[in-house]
Amino acid sequence: ALEQPTLTGISQAGTNLVLSAGNGQMGGTYFALTSTNLELPLSQWKPIGANVLSVSGSFTITVTNGFNTGIGRQFYILKMQN
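RESULT FIELD:
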């Protein structure tokens, strides 16, 4: 079984949001999800980006225009496609 990724950082590049991660497995499809409510089940979190890995290891997901100061608190998670 493939292991879940580890979120290692979140940064801003202009209006883009860059999520950095480790523990990616070659051939895995990884999704960045966001929510303003931690209590919602993952099925209700909004997908904001994805990356299919051609090599194992560290990877990033860049969300174009993903930086929005008008939202308030926002939470992020990385999830591997099941």
